[in-house]
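Class prep. Protein, please:
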Amino acid sequence: MFNFKKKNKNDYAELEVRNLNEEENEEEDEDLEESIDDEADDEVVEDEEETDDDEEAEDVWDEMSEEIEEEGQLAVDVYQDKKNIIIKSTIAGVEPDDIDISIDNDMITIRGRREKQRDIAEDDYFYQECYWGGFSRSIILPVEVDAEGIEAGMRNGVLTITLPKTHAKDMSIKVRDEN
């Protein structure tokens, strides 16, 4: 294993010690490799268990998502004039009776449903970009509005909601001295 020339007894002893140390190191290396292999085997088993858990979770999610229909988000323009906040949205293909508009504090919510007129096989589509099904959009209003005065109308597939602004009265509040 070694190529050396013997010079004296001390040199030979030193080489023997090196040789023994290297043999011990080789044994330690082998033990370490076995330990690493064992740990790797354990990790593979753990990975398989995690994979099983992941697959179960994915199956549950798939079942839940089939039950819960996704809602599309309605695109809107929101702007103001001197007296009103105006919300406009294109919602072609929806009947006015199928639109629900509600207001709660400082938020307005628009909900509706766009139904397909007929079923078309997936293979027959070249492009399928239109959203069919339920949709909604909640908008936080930037100013206070008069809920009693809200009006909504639809013309040529464009929904327009007009929300009259309320005008807060300017008032001065006097601070009293409580000492």
Summary: The chain has a mean pLDDT of 76.
